[in-house]
Amino acid sequence: xxxxxxxxxxxxxxxxxxxxxxxxxxxxxxxxxxxxxxxxxxxxxxxxxxxxxxxxxxxxxxxxxxxxxxxxxxxxxxxxxxxxxxxxxxxxxxxxxxxxxxxxxxxxxxxxxxxxxxxxxxxxxxxxxxxxxxxxxxxxxxxxxxxxxxxxxxxxxxxxxxxxxxxxxxxxxxxxxxxxxxxxxxxxxxxxxxxxxxxxxxxxxxxxxxxxxxxxxxxxxxxxxxxxxxxxxxxxxxxxxxxxxxxxxxxxxxxxxxxxxxxxxxxxxxxxxxxxxxxxxxxxxxxxxxxxxxxxxxxxxxxxxxxxxxxxxxxxxxxxxxxxxxxxxxxxxxxxxxxxxxxxxxxxxxxxxxxxxxxxxxxxxxxxxxxxxxxxxxxxxxxxxxxxxxxxxxxxxxxxxxxxxxxxxxxxxxxxxxxxxxxxxxxxxxxxxxxxxxxxxxxxxxxxxxxxxxxxxxxxxxxxxxxxxxxxxxxxxxxxxxxxxxxxxxxxxxxxxxxxxxxxxxxxxxxxxxxxxxxxxxxxxxxxxxxxxxxxxxxxxxxxxxxxxxxxxxxxxxxxxxxxxxxxxxxxxxxxxxxxxxxxxxxxxxxxxxxxxxxxxxxxxxxxxxxxxxxxxxxxxxxxxxxxxxxxxxxxxxxxxxxxxxxxxxxxxxxxxxxxxxxxxxxxxxxxxxxxxxxxxxxxxxxxxxxxxxxxxxxxxxxxxxxxxxxxxxxxxxxxxxxxxxxxxxxxxxxxxxxxxxxxxxxxxxxxxxxxxxxxxxxxxxxxxxxxxxxxxxxxxxxxxxxxxxxxxxxxxxxxxxxxxxxxxxxxxxxxxxxxxxxxxxxxxxxxxxxxxxxxxxxxxxxxxxxxxxxxxxxxxxxxxxxxxxxxxxxxxxxxxxxxxxxxxxxxxxxxxxxxxxxxxxxxxxxxxxxxxxxxxxxxxxxxxxxxxxxxxxxxxxxxxxxxxxxxx
Amino acid sequence: xxxxxxxxxxxxxxxxxxxxxxxxxxxxxxxxxxxxxxxxxxxxxxxxxxxxxxxxxxxxxxxxxxxxxxxxxxxxxxxxxxxxxxxxxxxxxxxxxxxxxxxx
Amino acid sequence: xxxxxxxxxxxxxxxxxxxxxxxxxxxxxxxxxxxxxxxxxxxxxxxxxxxxxxxxxxxxxxxxxxxxxxxxxxxxxxxxxxxxxxxxxxxxxxxxxxxxxxxxxxxxxxxxxxxxxxxxxxxxxxxxxxxxxxxxxxxxxxxxxxxxxxxxxxxxxxxxxxxxxxxxxxxxxxxxxxxxxxxxxxxxxxxxxxxxxxxxxxxxxxxxxxxxxxxxxxxxxxxxxxxxxxxxxxxxxxxxxxxxxxxxxxxxxxxxxxxxxxxxxxxxxxxxxxxxxxxxxxxxxxxxxxxxxxxxxxxxxxxxxxxxxxxxxxxxxxxxxxxxxxxxxxxxxxxxxxxxxxxxxxxxxxxxxxxxxxxxxxxxxxxxxxxxxxxxxxxxxxxxxxxxxxxxxxxxxxxxxxxxxxxxxxxxxxxxx
Amino acid sequence: xxxxxxxxxxxxxxxxxxxxxxxxxxxxxxxxxxxxxxxxxxxxxxxxxxxxxxxxxxxxxxxxxxxxxxxxxxxxxxxxxxxxxxxxxxxxxxxxxxxxxxxxxxxxxxxxxxxxxxxxxxxxxxxxxxxxxxxxxxxxxxxxxxxxxxxxxxxxxxxx
Lengths: 953, 104, 417, 160
Ligand SMILES: Cc1cc2nc3c(=O)[nH]c(=O)nc-3n(C[C@H](O)[C@H](O)[C@H](O)COP(=O)(O)OP(=O)(O)OC[C@H]3O[C@@H](n4cnc5c(N)ncnc54)[C@H](O)[C@@H]3O)c2cc1C
Ligand SMILES: NC(=O)c1ccc[n+]([C@@H]2O[C@H](COP(=O)([O-])OP(=O)(O)OC[C@H]3O[C@@H](n4cnc5c(N)ncnc54)[C@H](O)[C@@H]3O)[C@@H](O)[C@H]2O)c1
Ligand SMILES: Cc1cc2nc3c(=O)[nH]c(=O)nc-3n(C[C@H](O)[C@H](O)[C@H](O)COP(=O)(O)O)c2cc1C
Ligand SMILES: [Zn+2]
Description:
Bound molecules: flavin-adenine dinucleotide, nicotinamide-adenine-dinucleotide, flavin mononucleotide, zinc ion
Oligomer: heterotetramer
Low-confidence stretches of chain B: 94-104
Largest interface: A-C, 114 and 112 residues
Strand content of chain B: 25-35%
Number of helices of chain B: 1
Structural class of chain B: mainly beta
Distance between the termini of chain B: 15 Å
Largest sheet of chain A: 7 strands, mixed
Number of strands of chain A: 49
Distance between the termini of chain A: 94 Å
Structural class of chain A: alpha+beta
């Protein structure tokens, strides 16, 4: 057993040694140790280098407040975690850690040179320099600053671990399982309510774990809670308190296990909704601010007590204490009783509690009242301290190997503050405590300021006979913020504590100021000549301690990142080698390459097939809404620009939907199935939006209408058959519908059966050819598709994808909402003014069309473009100008919205929006690209079969 | 995550089930043509955006599907009450006695 | 004013840095000013600076209800870019980017403008079309913006995943090399120091509670927590609280204020070289010069002035970030906060005169006004000084909501920030 | 049905069994005259199957495969959604705990007793959640979300 391990003490199991590696060196601790306690047991105090000055640092605390001992933990490929506090790492076999922010080694760190230059790096130095020469910022200064940045190793491999989540609902959530939290749980446990008690530590008990006299009580209490069905979660940190009793908490499931034995998810996010919340989060001890208070071996007194009682470790052999608060004495007494040498107890107060004095003298401890430590000695560990009576220059040196600080207690009010709870200044504590009320939430125990171990004084930095500007007295150890940095900030006019924080970075490190905020505030108050409550605190924000991204992202990754919606024909398309594209949440077949075809070749073939024979297209993703009720036609009449009332059952109509601002939102074909029933289609991406918009108007503007809306997008698989031979393909399989052009003309609708299953048949065309859209119940979709595919073989049927669909419709000048229109186009702009019912007095968006800007002649209008070079395909998004080679900024009058090579025409075609475009038809315009300007002729946005003769096949 | 009392379901439900739908009690004009451009602009775009007591619409979109109204303090984010669509706009917090359709 | 340079830093170091004067004095309100700016964010402080510097109007007060820079200026993710689609927007934001370049030298205050490039990821055909449209428009407007293939994007930003089997694979990206970041706080401080040196009074912790108007309707001054201050020109630059201020003048505006959250990770060694944004997966990220990852996404859904938001928004944001950059899954969130963004119906700002004589407004920057800070400040100063908008901000008037001449970048491309 | 996703083997874990439901006839029934229909959030037997109240004027009817459309009171709308929805059963002692992984409703027996039904979300996917017994739920979702939902539930069951 090592020299610092105290036999018979602690909650560790010395019989179970645990081997671990620290900076490559093999060491041994005991089961139940943290990395911190194991290092101390091995006599290691030097555990890291500070952020800015690379100063050697040791352990300050024993819990999550630890600012210095940040480790990189390596659990195998992809499992490196940076900045983990040694005080929270549970020792296990094969634990591998390394220290950070040092090179080449912890003992010899070249970065420490910055410490020598530190006079040049006061707070805010970077605002004042690195400005000249101007170009050097990018080439020299910023790269250099960035090289110095950061603490832990940057990530480079993908974390193979899983993360999971769940929702919890409780009547009472208690955060913190110290005495206060456990008592609150006990009090509630008989009520039959659902009670949950969570604590971040591996064991429940809080401070009680450092108090062997209470261990029996603790064990009994935990048994009673268990018997009463209280849900007790350890290793579970409440990261934030949100609205209406919502608490986020993260449970660490595997990090305490040897990597080889860890299975299952690494962490679990608990989304807890609680009717009532008790915050029993305890209090954190405050360090003291004096020269070189950052030397390894300078620690919090309470941490030494925790190491002693919980881990059976002595933090030193000859320990000095600097106290301003009574609670430090208990630590000294406990250490002394454990046989650890006490060098002295230095107390800044002149008048000490007689009982403490008596106890100290009983134990033979030297007590030096009304004095302060003014410096520490040693290189990488403290070897002694200098102290001086207050106001005197008569310094004295004392040798020691650890210095404990007892500066009073700061209630852990983070979660209370997340909930916007008010804080009041408690003069006796020298800290802020929860004040006033909060819905659902109360505080108890040390968190509420109920801290009993005596009293103390709280000051800014300890007095020193030296010029305080001449030495470093650290406030924020992790960010290397000194008292003089804070005073400098105040001197430079940063008077708000929020400014001081941001100028000095006090409290902004990974510990978020758990040990530094209050001291920083005190120093600032001193410099400002204000009281601490006048200066106030900075804002507490979640998370309470740093929280793994993965735990918050949860299972939402890869295939589960978001649903990929697939149609029932997707598996067929996949088997045919389709290339897919994402459209909204759907994946759609884009084209079906054969052999070595590229997209252009496949699309050309698919286009020709449709124009000359027949093509087959999966249109299932189109949104569908069934609009039902006696007022269905009236409702559509109000929503859409078109007139609907006169549409006869069995007929279809193209519908155009505007926003109330007059701009195109969506379009689609709707069929009237019966007097009181319409089958309305929407764009693939617009389905949910359109239904939501319709519901909004129906429920809140026209609740008197008897109409109901149901999404039927997924009720039907939609198979489009397009081309002169489309009828031939379906005819053998259709029952109950006369497919002749007379009985079922363009824009007609019929119901019947196909392949033996019910069918809704639309005679519509988005290609300009004879076309049918066959809607069948989705479960039959694949079978019907396959039957028609088989039938189609005799007609040379070809499956086509969205890309071919785009080309075919562009040849016909049909717009795609969201591509050719972009949320700034009116129906007239898009050349579909014909779809607006001229006699209608109102519909959604109509009034906006009369606004001044909507009537201007230079609005952008949809036109066609034909390039001079028929082989050149314009780039979609390319801009259009009327004056070539104008200087920058070049006035632009429009842009290309759709552009393809048209296999039918054997040349390129494009759709575009152009200012005053319709009046420019026949004009030459220019499309300037980076390398070349292309000449184009403006045309009608219709390139093929102007008369529409092909619609009938 | 807010907890919102749906006046139709008559129980509190998590925020993620709801869609926020903007300021409440802005009725669509019966005859939009009668409005001047400025009045139409007001209807379309101008909002109270109150700091404090705010009348707003929500839809229980992933629940019962209904739009309803709420009074919420936008500084604290706490709901004073929610009420069914069509119920008149409540007055001051303490003087209002209308149909709550479920008080939060 | 002490000039800042390496030499003065060295000189003061010898005196233990005791010789530094206040960067700006904490002013008490005078009874009257030639102009009063409400809101000491980057925009308001900058406007005061340019009023004094360019227009010779130095009897100016900037009044803030809290500490200067504590609004959105102090809580944003600091993305700077100008590759906007419409001419109006491109000119507005590029005016700002041109001013960012050289701002440190102009202010003698290092605002750490870092041209590390902004990469905007395209994940589907629609994104590609939309980004190309931006790139072509930007080129003709003299704004740099270029197309990268997925492989080029990954070469520019190595942590980026371009796995073709991802749920939203990266098909390419638009890169603006002049885009980047600046140190948010330093921007406010630099302008404050610059303005104060020119005689501007910076009055903090003094909420404006009313706007007084005379019989002719013109402004006469502002009521504040510290008394009435007379002035004939009021520039309101109060970001999330714009509606509240406009209400004081009897005006209702087309604005809604939403919570917008951001977060930072623990600091790690530099590995993330630029800014990356994805609108489809919906998140954006950069790494600050201190080493923390700075991350943001969309707003919470409802009107709020609480400067907080919900955890599920953060969950979505981080799921998105881990999807695009899977190597960061084990990184840890250090701090998460919220701001209040005021949003107009077309997501473009309102910068100009109001129907009230002597009242000027700069608002509606929504989730993306930090990048505009020097430009907006310069144009607000111009508008106040000349009582008419500069040609660059003229289109960003209030009338557009009546006439319908909206500047809707979002509708054109679903692009934020 | 020829859907690949419906062919998946049931997921069985300690205290959990997840299985697809057999084909059924389903209608969305809308009416302002809800006589004989359950109140919002409740379910009741209806014809040969069940009526599930999803909104104040909205019921999901789940009837055995092959059932004819029911005849109902005047002024109503009946829309066939039999193929839009896909059903899953989640049964076992830990069924509620499993669904609680992705569902933000309190599924304790006191607040979500057998017979209760509502539309809600599971991991962002809209579902109808119907408690058919103390340890048994039926979940309905739209067809194209079913594969995702199934995978999410299966993964959550592994990690429970
Ligand atoms: C989380 C977040 C991320 C963002 N990310 C980006 C980004 O990456 N890139 C980008 O370009 N933009 C971003 N933005 C937007 C950007 O922050 C703002 O548009 C910009 O900072 C606004 O600057 P401002 O000076 O107008 O406002 P602010 O800095 O908010 O200043 C307004 C000031 O007005 C004061 N005020 C309000 N009411 C009163 C009153 N009654 N009396 C006196 N004073 C008052 C406030 O206290 C405040 O200080 C983001 C915003 C947020 C919240
Ligand atoms: N002896 C001393 O020096 C000393 C000092 C302070 C308090 N006390 C006494 O101890 C008792 C205090 O007990 P207590 O229960 O208030 O505090 P405690 O410190 O014993 O317990 C608080 C617990 O909450 C945990 N915790 C804090 N924040 C958390 C979060 N966000 N998520 C999960 N866990 C979190 C802590 O790890 C700790 O286990 C009082 O009786 C007090 O007088 C003694
Ligand atoms: C770009 C940027 C970087 C930040 N980096 C840090 C950081 O490293 N540490 C930290 O504690 N806070 C950081 N913050 C957050 C601030 O501490 C603070 O949360 C934010 O300014 C909002 O203020 P509030 O939380 O006081 O309301 C950063 C903020 C921004 C805008
Ligand atoms: Zn509801």
